[in-house]
Amino acid sequence: VRVLHLKENIASLAWLLSSTRHGGFPVVGRPKPDHAQVFQGTIKRSELCMLLENEHIFEPEINNESFSSHPLPYEKITVEKLPKPSRLAMLLNRYTTDPRYQQLFINLEPYINKSAMSVQAHFSLQRTYVIFRTLGLRYLTVVDLQNRVVGVITRKDLMPFPLEERLRFQLSPQ
């Protein structure tokens, strides 16, 4: 599972967006310093791309203290379609190759969907399907009993033919 952290490194984020086609990502964080990383919410790929076009919000990591930047307004990061894909490709390349971006971070906390749905790892497949159908979801985060991310299930995963094959494989004697 490709998860993001509340404070994410710019170079790592650019590499992730360059190397995957995922439409969104679960975001994890520690509720308290001595706790494990748990599911905090989700963020869409398009929102991450729009954030990366605003270099003024990048900051150096300073002793795990909170970031001081002012978040971008919601209207500036929510888009139906990316305005300049070629510019984004150039930026992602620069962020992954220029060493100074290894030292810069972005605070994702103001931008994540904290009310994102998740299901437990042993949640009913039939009920998961109903959730997808009724809410029109594209992906759903799967968590364990401690709310740690253990997977992501997509709409494609619930399509009838692949689902039947997977069930047949799981149920057949090894």
From TrEMBL:
<feature type="domain" description="CBS">
    <location>
        <begin position="112"/>
        <end position="169"/>
    </location>
</feature>
<dbReference type="GO" id="GO:0015108">
    <property type="term" value="F:chloride transmembrane transporter activity"/>
</dbReference>
<keyword id="KW-0129">CBS domain</keyword>
<dbReference type="InterPro" id="IPR046342">
    <property type="entry name" value="CBS_dom_sf"/>
</dbReference>
<dbReference type="InterPro" id="IPR051280">
    <property type="entry name" value="Cl-channel/antiporter"/>
</dbReference>
<keyword id="KW-0868">Chloride</keyword>
<keyword id="KW-0406">Ion transport</keyword>
<protein>
    <submittedName>
        <fullName>CLCC protein</fullName>
    </submittedName>
</protein>
<dbReference type="Pfam" id="PF00571">
    <property type="entry name" value="CBS"/>
</dbReference>
<keyword id="KW-0813">Transport</keyword>
<keyword id="KW-0677">Repeat</keyword>
<dbReference type="InterPro" id="IPR000644">
    <property type="entry name" value="CBS_dom"/>
</dbReference>
